[in-house]
Design a protein that fits this description.
Blueprint (H helix, E strand, L loop, with lengths): L3 H34 L1 H7 L13 H4 L28 H25 L16 H27 L7 H5 L5 H35 L3 H14 L5 H22 L2 H22 L9
Helix pairs in contact: 1-2, 1-4, 1-7, 4-7, 5-9, 5-10, 7-8, 7-9, 7-10, 8-9, 9-10
Amino acid sequence: MPAWTAFAAVSLSVLLVLLLLARASESAVTTKQSSAEHPTVAAHEHDQPPYSTTDVESDSDMNQPHADGGESAVATDNGRLGQQTEQGVSTGLLLANVAFSQGLFAGILIIALWLTNVPVSAIGADLTVTTADAVGLGVVTGLVLYILNELGASHAKQWGLTGSEALRGALTPDGVAGWLVLLFVVLPIIAGFEELLFRGILIGALHVGFDVPLWLLAIGSSVAFGVGHGAQGRVGMVVTGTLGLVLAWLFIVTNSLFAVIIAHYIVNALEFVIHEGIGWEPFETEP
């Protein structure tokens, strides 16, 4: 017999830790953005003068790392911080950290699922009932979500509302190998873990185990999903929470964890490839 209470306790504990880490990431990204926007303040924080002894730095000097291992307070040409954080953490190390931490959380949830005898069908992971139509709907939903996300971001910018892109920029690799790791290792782990927790467990398992109404779980999980992406700023949290509602709908109508993982992955992958890889801003008009 499934130990629903024990499984829920473990899952909610993972959610709490995740939200606390998200809050810490939000603070770190906010501090980094503030340093980039106010180089004089950032220079004092590093106990260094804001300018060289000649009072003028060349373009190349402005993007060179400081002697203490921190990055120059001036952002790179594309508006995001360079390939090292102020603490000297490389993009590769950051990607490894994300993959390890989210993979670890996913592993904890899977082990808890096994130890508590919760059926995989409760989280929508039963391959015997996952149809090609469900997977196809996941692909279509992912593409539609990406387009709507871009349209919404474009209109939001016209109103002066923008989300933070610092975290996405920090995770963007330089070389081909880094992109392969990002697209085929890190992003699948992120999509898999987040959908397992926010849709498979917070909607599917809690509904099956405790008979909580699906609509209430969909709203609650989407709010938590938005809060968990606080590093993207307030606008990003609202957008992510809205995307979470659509993914909740997809999970409910398909009863397939794989469908929402695919949709989630498509949105994330397209954002990285189009914005950071190609450097294209869809639907953006000249002021």
